[in-house]
């Protein structure tokens, strides 16, 4: 495989090739996602919800993110591995943001970090990039700010927030980000943003006018089943298939059918 780099992603935008991105938090899943040829693997702080069962992304720690990321990195041969900076690991000041990013790069072997926010974290982004660490931005619905927003509904529907988001996107590009994630904003706005910057814009619930798409893997394969936003396309229904497999296994044990003569020594 030829490895995907931050440069490959910018080239994809230039050539009009859409970027594919999925999450992974562990070795086994990352191996499958990478083997399928997905361009970018995000070790998202959504691990806080999906892996640990928390209601929000706030509780996951930097140490836990590094554990997830190092497991993913060991599996990946081709994809670019981007690791979320978790809540509390960068907001205090730019030095803390850099220190956390350095820990992620050294201790996990990830290739880039992702950080939520715009203008308010500009200095932190510059400092991280100055150290040679590629940064992906994240605007729109930024789940680490859920207690400020109050709900997980669509962001930037009002002109004022939309204008601020457009400014933030330009600012992230100027600060040196190699890409931006836009989460849950109107498709028209996302398309405008993608056209206004030369770096790739990757959407989740941001329509088809952007340069690539990202989904949470466990959602798109239907392992989770209680989360049903409009933007989520389910490619499998693993919740039902796995439930059925576990039930059959139990039945086979109870009936004495498992293990059979060929399944023992
Ligand atoms: O943590 C995550 O999974 C994310 C994506 C939804 C973009 O940030
Ligand atoms: Na995230």
Write the layout of secondary structure elements.
Elements: H1 6-14, E1 19-23, H2 27-35, E2 40-43, H3 47-50, H4 62-73, E3 80-84, H5 94-108, E4 112-116, H6 122-130, E5 135-140, H7 146-149, H8 159-175, E6 179-183, H9 187-196, E7 201-204, E8 212-215, H10 217-220, H11 238-255
Parallel strand pairs: 1-2, 1-8, 2-3, 3-4, 4-5, 5-6, 6-7, 7-8
The chain binds 3-methyl-2-oxobutanoic acid and sodium ion.
Enzyme class: transferase
Catalytic activity: (6R)-5,10-methylene-5,6,7,8-tetrahydrofolate + 3-methyl-2-oxobutanoate + H2O = 2-dehydropantoate + (6S)-5,6,7,8-tetrahydrofolate
Pfam families: Pantoate_transf
General description of the model:
This protein is of the alpha/beta class. The chain contains eleven helices and eight strands. It folds into two domains: 6-234, TIM Barrel (Alpha-Beta Barrel); 238-265. Helices cover 42% and strands 14% of the residues. Bound molecules: 3-methyl-2-oxobutanoic acid and sodium ion (NA). The site of sodium ion (NA) has 5 residues, from loops. Sodium ion (NA) binds at residues 44-46, 57, 84.
């Amino acid at each position: 495989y030829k490895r995907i780099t931050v440069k490959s992603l910018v080239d994809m935008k230039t050539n009009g090739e859409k970027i594919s991105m999925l999450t992974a938090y562990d070795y086994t899943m990352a191996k499958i996602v990478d083997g399928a040829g997905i361009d970018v693997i995000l070790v998202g702080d959504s691990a806080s919800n999906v892996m640990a069962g928390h209601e929000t992304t706030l509780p996951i720690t930097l140490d836990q993110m590094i554990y997830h990321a190092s497991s993913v990195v060991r599996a990946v041969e081709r994809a670019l591995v981007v690791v979320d900076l978790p809540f509390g690991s960068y907001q205090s000041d730019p030095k803390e943001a850099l220190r956390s990013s350095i820990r992620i790069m050294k201790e996990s072997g990830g290739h880039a970090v992702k950080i939520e926010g715009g203008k308010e974290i500009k200095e932190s982004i510059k400092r991280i990039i100055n150290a040679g660490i590629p940064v992906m931005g994240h605007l729109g619905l930024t789940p680490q700010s859920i207690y400020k927003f109050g709900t997980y509904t669509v962001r930037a529907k009002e002109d004022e927030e939309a204008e601020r988001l457009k400014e933030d996107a330009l600012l992230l590009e100027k600060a040196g980000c190699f890409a931006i994630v836009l989460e849950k904003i109107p498709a028209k706005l996302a398309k405008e943003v993608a056209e206004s910057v030369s770096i790739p814009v990757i959407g989740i619930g941001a329509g088809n006018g952007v340069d690539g798409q990202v989904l949470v893997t466990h959602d798109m394969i239907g392992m989770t089943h209680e989360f049903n936003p409009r933007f989520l396309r389910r490619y499998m229904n693993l919740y039902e298939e796995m439930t059925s497999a576990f039930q059959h296994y139990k039945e086979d044990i109870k009936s004495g059918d498992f293990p059979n003569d060929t399944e023992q020594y």
